[in-house]
Design brief:
By secondary structure, the protein is an alpha/beta fold. It has two domains: 117 residues, Rossmann fold (3-Layer(aba) Sandwich), CATH 3.40.50.1000; 106 residues, HAD superfamily/HAD-like (Rossmann fold), CATH 3.40.50. A six-stranded parallel beta sheet has the order 5-4-1-13-14-15. The chain is globular, with a radius of gyration of 18 Å.
Length: 261
């Protein structure tokens, strides 16, 4: 028999928010999680913002999520680097969400003989920085990226994301990056460790079969696909892995029943 649910990992974009707008039912669902006394983390592949920044942005649109309850791909990437080479050196292309996470583990950010080149989301693509990254990777710096998403939404339409820039650098160097964020199970394991949770007592809620759900399945979690984001119902059957449950919206999930499973 399945263990009762004690922990909830929930994707942010497409589940709780869509752009700068709350998805219907998100505040009520998060309040239900708190009322049940469940441990939870909001996950995001977005490495631009720090958890404090994201908490503030969510607050301004009516969703109260403490910064301690937000876990980003930048945080997972920093933990990976710390496991691999404590207090190492990295050349970084990314915003404050990534640089803060890397500084927090005692890494030095430099372009002088770095152990790693770390790529994250950025809003200012600089050919000088990209050229330096290509040179460093070609000379042996290990290539790590926060997430594989090739594009993302903005107020002005589609914009290139980490995966697109990673493809450019891979093409120039012949070196493939290791992506740490979803769907890499490392991010899920890092999130579980962050709240001292066990996989058999945890559910992953997301809107994308190719990131959220596969990451949950490969990490041994129960999974719920919410159809308020990227994946539509008619696409689900095409995947060789399946979620534990598919729902139209968060309001259909009764976590009280999951606790009694």
């Amino acid at each position: 028999m399945d263990e009762p649910i004690k922990n909830v990992l929930i994707d942010m974009d497409g589940v709780l928010v869509s752009g700068r707008n709350l998805i219907e039912g998100a505040p009520e669902f998060m309040q239900a999680v708190r009322d049940l006394g469940l441990e939870y983390l909001v996950l995001t592949n977005n490495s631009v913002y720090t958890p404090r920044d994201l908490s503030h942005r969510l607050h301004t649109i009516g969703l109260e999520i403490p910064e301690q309850r937000i876990f980003t791909s930048a945080m997972a990437t920093a933990r990976f680097l710390d496991h691999q080479r404590p207090r190492g050196k990295a050349f970084v292309i990314g915003e404050s969400g990534l640089t803060d996470a890397i500084y927090s583990i005692g890494f030095i950010i430099t372009d002088i003989s770095p152990d790693y080149f770390v790529l994250g989301e950025t809003r200012s693509y600089d050919m000088v920085m990209i050229t330096r990254a290509v040179q460093l990777v070609a000379n042996g710096a290990r290539f790590v990226a926060t997430n594989p998403d090739p594009s993302g939404p903005s107020e002005h339409g589609l914009i290139p994301a980490t995966g697109a820039l990673a493809a450019l650098i891979e093409k120039a160097t012949g070196t493939s990056p290791l992506f740490i964020g979803k769907p890499n199970p490392f991010m899920m394991r890092a999130a579980l460790n962050y709240i001292d949770a066990h996989s058999e007592e945890t559910v992953m809620i997301g809107d994308r079969m190719d990131t959220d759900i596969i990451a949950g399945v490969e990490s041994g979690l129960r999974t719920i696909l919410v159809l308020t984001g990227v994946t539509s119902r008619d696409q689900v059957a095409r995947f060789p892995y399946q979620p534990s449950r598919v729902v139209e919206r968060l309001s259909e999930i009764d976590l009280g029943n999951y606790r009694k499973t």
